[in-house]
Amino acid sequence: GEDVEQSLFLSVREGDSSVINCTYTDSSSTYLYWYKQEPGAGLQLLTYIFSNMDMKQDQRLTVLLNKKDKHLSLRIADTQTGDSAIYFCAESGNSGAGSYQLTFGKGTKLSVIP
Amino acid sequence: DGGITQSPKYLFRKEGQNVTLSCEQNLNHDAMYWYRQDPGQGLRLIYYSQIVNDFQKGDIAEGYSVSREKKESFPLTVTSAQKNPTAFYLCASRTGGDEAFFGQGTRLTVV
Fold this sequence. Notes:
heterodimer, A: mainly beta, 5-stranded antiparallel β-sheet, 11 strands, globular, B: mainly beta, 7-stranded mixed β-sheet
């Protein structure tokens, strides 16, 4: 079945950029999402990218998509201590029943060092 | 305000008991999902429903049951057949290929 892989941990210094990487296997993925989860809370959508795009920028967040390599990354500029959280990559299928499938990675725990 | 609400936030279950977790949304979303989250495991899909009166098993459906009698509601029952139910449970809803909205989760503990 479809699979989404992420590294489990990332540690950065406050003010530096963070880059969280994700790879996926489903070639028919249409939407790719980044979610943030703070301790004891639900998931909050940060941003998403449609599969016909290469890049999307939203304030401090930049998403890069390499569809050929099935690689997605999330860059957080000027990382702050409030960015410390778990970040999930997710993908959604193309059409019909597949468009209702949501597959998540295991999450990357970002720790920001003051 | 539109949103998705899970209740209760914390739930304790005795061995051998069934418990039901509530999930309600007023976003008019067609699809609803239940995920289980364990430390280091990410999110694992339990059940999902695309429309009323229809639902499909996810990757770890054993020991769980659901119903979808109304568009707004998708309750999850954790039965006594689920041998290791202690976890954080997350409900989500979405329409088609749009982003999913999540509730704040229910933490279930077996005592």
